[in-house]
Amino acid sequence: HHRHWARFQHLWLAEQAADLAALAAAGGVRDAAPRANAILAGYAHYASLPNSDNVLGPSHLFFSTYLESIWITNYLGAATLLRESDLLEEEAAVVVNGVADEAAGVIGEFNEGFSNRQTWHNAALAAIGVWFEDEELAGRAVEGDTGMLSHLAHGFASDGTWHEGENYHLFALQGMLTAIRWARSAGVDALGDADLATRLFSALRVPMLTALPDLTFPARKDSRYGVSLAQPMYLELWERGLGVVGGRVPGAEELGGWLRALYAAPAPPAQPFDSWLYEAGMEPPARRDRSALSWSALLEMMPALPEFQPARGGSVLLPSDGYAVLRSDDRYVGLECGEWSGGHGHPDRLNLTYHADGISWLPDFGTGSYVSPDLFWYRSTLAHNAPRLDGVSQQEGDAECTAFDVRDQWAWVRGVWGPFTRTVVAGPAYVLDVLELNAATERLVELPWHLDGGEMQTSGSWAPAALDDAFVSDVERFTPAGAGSLAIRAGRDGRTLTLHLAGGAELLRGSVPGAPGATARRTCFLERLRATGAQLVHVLAAGEGAVRGVRVGANAIEIDTPAGTEVHAATAEGWAMRGPSGEVRLGGVILRRPDFEPLVTRNRPLVEHATARYATASPSLDGSRDGFPGAPAIHLDHEDQYRRSEEPFAGPEAFSASAWLAWDEDALYLAVEVSKPELLFRPADAPPLRFDNEVDDIHSDGLQVYLAAPDGGSWGVLVVPEAGGGIRVHSIAGTSASSAEVRGAWEETAAGYRVTLALAPAFWDGIRLERTVAFDLIVNEMRPGRERRAGQMVWTGGGGWVWLRGDRQGRERFGVLDLA
Questions:
Q1: How many C-beta neighbours within 10 Å does residue 818 have?
Q2: Three-state secondary structure call for residue 448
Q3: What is the pLDDT of residues 568-601, one digit of tens each?
Q4: Calpha distance 170→456 (Å, rounded)
Q5: C-alpha span between 385 and 350 (Å, rounded)
Q6: 3-class SS at 363?
Q7: CA–CA separation, 107 vs 99, rounded Å?
Q8: Cα separations (Å) of 448 from 363, 391, 538?
Q9: Average pLDDT over the chain, rounded to whole?
Q10: For labeling, which of 109, 142, 157, 717 is most exposed (least CB within 10 Å)?
């Protein structure tokens, strides 16, 4: 972290070199060329910088390969502009050759599949291929299994969406456009195929469809909160995109109308982005124009924007992504469905967002800093306006949009996740929201409402209460003075929103973190009840007096308005509303899941099996194998079980492990022998590493052990040997484990060390009666001279990379342990 400043410095320098080279090559400013050459030549030390202790992929200059890739596309952009203009000095050319050659190996080694980061890897490898006129390297970057064309065809879904949310959608688009430009230099017209050109246009267009009325993008999944789409980086994105699809795709001029709207908006201060730092340190203008952009835009933008007036945004469903937007004038309502998207996804199925009158009343805050502990708050269900079951964040699973229709001034959407169905009906004056539970057994249902500044309009009193969450404080329970619905009103800047609740649930409120980066906390309301079947009904109305009351009957919902009572009911065809102005029927078209291949395959076809033998006498648990069966049940000694960092698997003689398993009525017993020439256990009193949101002890020799919990979650612990034969145990965040449920010891062996453990989770009785449990074992490897672990052996295998794993292991990867 003390070297973090260099990240933006290197990225900015490469951008400046390219801008200087463009001035010299295209602008006739010849005295810019010497400075550009000097920046390029200044990286003569590139290969000597250590490629170790990285956070995400091999890299010399940064903590990750994708940053190296962004940097070198600008670096080689500068070099190419100078070379093609006969302005590249010999000294700089020699350095560029060395840098490009080394970077090709570093970047090419780390393939990230269908990650947004791989779009930039492809761009970098294509750039290096062009620089060296290396047809094979350029072909791999463009036509490989996870190359540019594959990303364009399969990374962006048929509706144009990228699976990791708006923030990474836009970032992947930048990488894609950069790769397309370098491919064109290599003689490949990626958009010569009409279908691919249309797919790129859809990807460029979809942020227009989901943009909030204030021209920010919704902070879905791991997105920044409150980022304007009028940022100069995004202006450049659409300028470049229009430049490459204009004239190829019918209707592409719509992007010109969108750009005109963004240029007309007040200019937001330029935020620092890895891929765009041109305005760093500058004061924003009142309005931006096309001259504010970089050399990249200059090479691709149209001479003039098309004259096009974009249609006012309407309600839309993105079928592949599963996101529905219901729009009316300045009101925006979003419902989150779709596939569980893994890494950058959030447990936010059926999350509701609401924006009206220029205010985000029910926001999705996305994710703040990855290096702040509040990351775990923003990645929890409780931080969203989404249902939570049995007091824990949602487990992995897809939500399906089952109905969507727009008619007259009304629109509706229905989504299903697990035992929940959420129906949202938007009309001219209000939004009706109905959450239903259908479960076989009694469940605890909780629904948060992040309506900041809300005050109870219903008479009653608040009393202290409890809610088990580290981020929530000052919890109170509301007791109404009488029967009927409840009303909460929020006000800001002379505008109001009233939330009416009619569902019979108890109501809590508490203090929770505010928007990412904000120090002030917010008030969150929470409905809570236990039931097998339940219906929670809500009405949201902006302004004063739009809704006077709500009642729920056996078959209908009645909403009192100044014009009279409007009656809502589900029908066989969908939804119907009958009121003083007439009747509206919304279609109940059942939408099939789109025929789209998943972007990331998370399930491995093979499942590891092992057997634990019954112990007639409990093992000694003194670091010896006394009491354990004679033969090991698990071996960790193959390359496909090793997750590496910068260095590949060195072989079983350098690092391997075996494990013995036993059980009795009290516990599961585990003995793990690790073969490793040098033992590196992190001392308990070592200075803190301050590494992101990681437990320091993963950067040590030690073990991670996981069991499947009966509630659908996981039980996991991290174990590190300590001086004197004892062990240090951490319960893994997000699991139900407690360090008190583990005891054991360790001892040094001729080949390495051995740890013996007794694991006694609270649900052990259920496991031993079932005689089977999902299980996994991971052994961490530390090496001398490193700050971060070098790798880990994983029983259930899969190989891959250790970066960003932390102490997590997905339950879907566990093997099966039988109790014999």
A1: 15
A2: strand
A3: 999 989 999 999 989 999 997 775 554 444 444 4
A4: 40
A5: 8
A6: coil
A7: 12
A8: 12, 12, 12
A9: 93
A10: 109
Distance CA 28, CA 31 (A): 9
> Which residue has 């014009």 as its token pair?
563
Across residues 85-105, what is the average pLDDT?
98
> How many Cβ atoms are within 10 Å of 314's Cβ, its own excluded?
12
- Could you report the per-residue pLDDT of 562-573, keeping only the tens digit for each? 999 999 999 989
Q: Alpha-carbon distance 323 to 144, whole Å?
A: 30
Distance CA 221, CA 218 (A): 9
Question: What pLDDT is recorded for position 128?
Answer: 98
Give dist(CA 775, CA 716) in Å, integer. Answer: 10
Taking the CB of residue 425, how many other CB atoms lie within 10 A of it? 24
CA angle 716, 722, 723 (to 5 degrees): 170
Residues 6+ apart with CB under 8 A from 557: 432, 434, 537, 550, 551, 567, 568, 569
472: buried, middle or exposed (CB in 10 Å: 19+, 13-18, 0-12)?
Answer: buried
**pLDDT of amino acid 724:** 95
Angle between helical axes of 65-84 and 5-26 (0-180°, round to 10) = 20
- Give yes or no for residue 602 having a pLDDT over 70: no
Strands 656-663 and 609-614: parallel
Q: Which amino acid is at 14?
A: A
Contacts of 552 by beta carbon, 8 Å cutoff, 6+ apart: 502, 503, 535, 537, 558
Calculate what percentage of the chain has a pLDDT beyond 70. Answer: 97
Confidence of residue 733 (pLDDT cuts 50, 70, 90): confident
Instruction: Give me the helix-helix angle, 166-185 and 65-84, nearest 10°.
Output: 30
Q: What is the pTM of this model?
A: 0.90
Q: Would you give the DSSP letter of residue 392?
A: B
- Measured torsion, CA atoms of residues 737, 740, 744, 745, in degrees rounded to the nearest 10: 110
Q: How far apart are CA 182 and CA 123, in angstroms?
A: 7
Q: For residue 362, give the nearest of 525, 471, 221 by alpha carbon.
A: 525
Q: Which structure tokens are listed for 344?
A: 């950058």
Per-residue pLDDT, 601:
42
DSSP per-residue codes, 399-420: BEEEEEEEETTEEEEEEEETTE
Given a cut of 60, is residue 329 above it in pLDDT? yes
The pLDDT assigned to 598 comes to 43
Confidence of residue 164 (pLDDT cuts 50, 70, 90): confident
Task: Give yes or no for a contact between 54 and 64, defined as CB atoms under 8 angstroms apart.
Answer: yes
Size of the chain in residues: 820
Report the alpha-carbon distance of residue 17 to residue 36 in Å, rounded: 5
Furthest C-alpha separation in the chain: 87
- Buried b / exposed e over 490-527, threshold 16 CB at 10 Å, is beeeeebbbbbbbbebebbbbebbbbbeeeebbbbbbb
CA distance 278 to 26: 18
